């Protein structure tokens, strides 16, 4: 693969543009000092795109997203857009990108930096050194299955209120197999272990999930260690002893909940990156969008208070999963770790231990300096 990478940057709204400025500093550093070459294009998404084009993701933006190696997104939304029609809300821009790129595997790492272990809601002994990856199926399951809706429950006189709400958990074997492959590929780059979670004890879609994940394992990834767990037990185990896991693969609904629970094992929302991957393109790279888990944080926007680390670690994921530069990703993650170990703290990370308070820009500069220090 060439050492030239095309990247579409969509800063979005609120603190999105503020944290993205810090990522651009990091990109510049890798270009100048590591001989990597990024073709970076920037565009609007979310409310910023609505203000300009009347649409939260313009057709030209979508075309660009489809033509690059990876998309890096800040955050979208804000109170000034709350009254907009549903079809043009900032979040629709995100959904359009995810859908058109068919990003079916959502990767949510939960990594506990030693310097922040006391921010966890769990004891330091339980979370120190934690480094797990939840792979959530993102494009199917109960959030999309038909039939759905709220109907009159006509033939049921015993139903007080008279209505019924319906959603359908539906998975095809193909949908399960493709996300399972993503999880096995990722495990191959890590510890080589996958735990698949469903409720095969009470759901047919869970039985199919278990069978298909096992099939992909046996036929294509026999060297990866695969285990299965009921998702409710998985929730308990994540809180009891999260370090027993490496890669967890699960469906859309369980993944939504389990990944949020796992996130809190590690502390601040300002630290959490994510990636969403789709099918491999002709150049062998997966379709991909990287973004922090947090939103546009209107309460602190424009004040230099935002923690840029979630967005910076999202870029580290791009280095690893889109650009095949796990070495550069690890250097960047180590730089973040070192800065945190030095007590450098944005406001969201200020704890009882004190530390050196810094702005968004200072945090970015410190991380660049730590990269340079090697
Ligand atoms: P939020 O994640 O924007 O903020 C929640 C809390 O965490 C706030 O107190 C905020 O100040 C803090 N926070 C978030 N990121 C931070 C960072 N990097 N550094 C320091 N503190 C940080 O979620 P909220 O308040 O529910 O939503 C605000 C807006 O963002 C809404 O319009 C919502 O729709 C949108 N949103 C967008 C998402 C996205 O673009 N992927 C995801 C979640 C919400
Ligand atoms: Mg959620």
TrEMBL record:
<dbReference type="InterPro" id="IPR024084">
    <property type="entry name" value="IsoPropMal-DH-like_dom"/>
</dbReference>
<keyword id="KW-0520">NAD</keyword>
<keyword id="KW-0479">Metal-binding</keyword>
<keyword id="KW-0963">Cytoplasm</keyword>
<keyword id="KW-0460">Magnesium</keyword>
<keyword id="KW-0100">Branched-chain amino acid biosynthesis</keyword>
<comment type="subunit">
    <text>Homodimer.</text>
</comment>
<feature type="binding site">
    <location>
        <position position="108"/>
    </location>
    <ligand>
        <name>substrate</name>
    </ligand>
</feature>
<feature type="binding site">
    <location>
        <begin position="295"/>
        <end position="307"/>
    </location>
    <ligand>
        <name>NAD(+)</name>
    </ligand>
</feature>
<feature type="domain" description="Isopropylmalate dehydrogenase-like">
    <location>
        <begin position="6"/>
        <end position="367"/>
    </location>
</feature>
<protein>
    <recommendedName>
        <fullName>3-isopropylmalate dehydrogenase</fullName>
        <ecNumber>1.1.1.85</ecNumber>
    </recommendedName>
</protein>
<feature type="binding site">
    <location>
        <position position="232"/>
    </location>
    <ligand>
        <name>Mg(2+)</name>
    </ligand>
</feature>
<feature type="binding site">
    <location>
        <position position="232"/>
    </location>
    <ligand>
        <name>substrate</name>
    </ligand>
</feature>
<dbReference type="InterPro" id="IPR019818">
    <property type="entry name" value="IsoCit/isopropylmalate_DH_CS"/>
</dbReference>
<dbReference type="GO" id="GO:0003862">
    <property type="term" value="F:3-isopropylmalate dehydrogenase activity"/>
</dbReference>
<comment type="function">
    <text>Catalyzes the oxidation of 3-carboxy-2-hydroxy-4-methylpentanoate (3-isopropylmalate) to 3-carboxy-4-methyl-2-oxopentanoate. The product decarboxylates to 4-methyl-2 oxopentanoate.</text>
</comment>
<feature type="binding site">
    <location>
        <position position="260"/>
    </location>
    <ligand>
        <name>Mg(2+)</name>
    </ligand>
</feature>
<feature type="binding site">
    <location>
        <begin position="78"/>
        <end position="91"/>
    </location>
    <ligand>
        <name>NAD(+)</name>
    </ligand>
</feature>
<feature type="site" description="Important for catalysis">
    <location>
        <position position="143"/>
    </location>
</feature>
<keyword id="KW-0432">Leucine biosynthesis</keyword>
<feature type="binding site">
    <location>
        <position position="136"/>
    </location>
    <ligand>
        <name>substrate</name>
    </ligand>
</feature>
<feature type="binding site">
    <location>
        <position position="98"/>
    </location>
    <ligand>
        <name>substrate</name>
    </ligand>
</feature>
<comment type="pathway">
    <text>Amino-acid biosynthesis; L-leucine biosynthesis; L-leucine from 3-methyl-2-oxobutanoate: step 3/4.</text>
</comment>
<dbReference type="Pfam" id="PF00180">
    <property type="entry name" value="Iso_dh"/>
</dbReference>
<feature type="binding site">
    <location>
        <position position="256"/>
    </location>
    <ligand>
        <name>Mg(2+)</name>
    </ligand>
</feature>
<comment type="similarity">
    <text>Belongs to the isocitrate and isopropylmalate dehydrogenases family. LeuB type 1 subfamily.</text>
</comment>
<keyword id="KW-0560">Oxidoreductase</keyword>
<dbReference type="InterPro" id="IPR004429">
    <property type="entry name" value="Isopropylmalate_DH"/>
</dbReference>
<keyword id="KW-0028">Amino-acid biosynthesis</keyword>
<feature type="site" description="Important for catalysis">
    <location>
        <position position="199"/>
    </location>
</feature>
<keyword id="KW-0464">Manganese</keyword>
């Amino acid at each position: 693969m060439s050492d030239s990478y095309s990247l579409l940057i969509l800063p979005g709204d609120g603190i999105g543009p503020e944290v993205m400025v810090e990522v651009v500093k990091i990109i510049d550093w890798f270009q100048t000092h590591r001989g990597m070459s990024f073709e970076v294009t920037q565009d609007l998404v979310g409310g910023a795109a609505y203000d300009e084009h009347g649409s939260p993701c313009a057709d030209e933006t979508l075309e660009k997203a489809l033509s690059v190696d990876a998309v890096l997104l800040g955050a979208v939304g804000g109170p000034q857009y709350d009254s907009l029609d549903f079809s043009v809300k900032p979040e629709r821009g995100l959904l359009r990108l995810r859908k058109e790129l068919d990003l079916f595997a959502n990767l949510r790492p939960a990594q506990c930096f030693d310097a922040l272990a006391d921010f966890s809601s769990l004891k330091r002994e339980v979370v120190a050194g934690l480094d797990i990856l939840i792979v959530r199926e993102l494009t199917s399951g109960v959030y999309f299955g038909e039939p759905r809706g709220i109907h009159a429950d006509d033939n049921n006189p015993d139903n007080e209120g008279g209505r019924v709400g319906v959603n359908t958990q539906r998975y095809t074997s193909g949908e399960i197999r493709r996300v399972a492959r993503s999880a096995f590929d990722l495990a191959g780059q890590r510890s080589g272990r996958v735990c698949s979670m469903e409720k095969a004890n009470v759901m047919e879609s869970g039985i199919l999930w278990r069978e298909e994940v096992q099939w992909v394992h046996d036929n294509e990834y026999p060297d990866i260690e695969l285990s299965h767990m009921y998702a409710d037990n998985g929730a308990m185990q994540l809180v009891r002893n999260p370090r027993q896991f490496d890669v967890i693969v699960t469906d859309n609904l369980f993944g939504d909940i389990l990944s949020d629970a796992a996130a809190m094992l590690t502390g601040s929302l300002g630290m959490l990156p994510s990636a969403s991957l789709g099918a491999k393109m002709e150049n062998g790279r997966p379709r991909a969008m990287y973004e922090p888990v947090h939103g546009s944080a209107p309460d602190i926007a424009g004040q230099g208070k935002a923690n840029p680390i979630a967005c910076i670690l999202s870029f580290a994921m791009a280095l690893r999963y889109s650009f095949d530069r796990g070495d550069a990703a690890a250097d960047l993650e180590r730089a973040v770790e070192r800065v945190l170990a030095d007590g450098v703290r944005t406001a969201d990370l200020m704890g009882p231990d004190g530390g050196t308070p810094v702005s968004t820009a200072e945090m970015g500069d410190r991380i660049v300096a730590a990269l340079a220090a090697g």
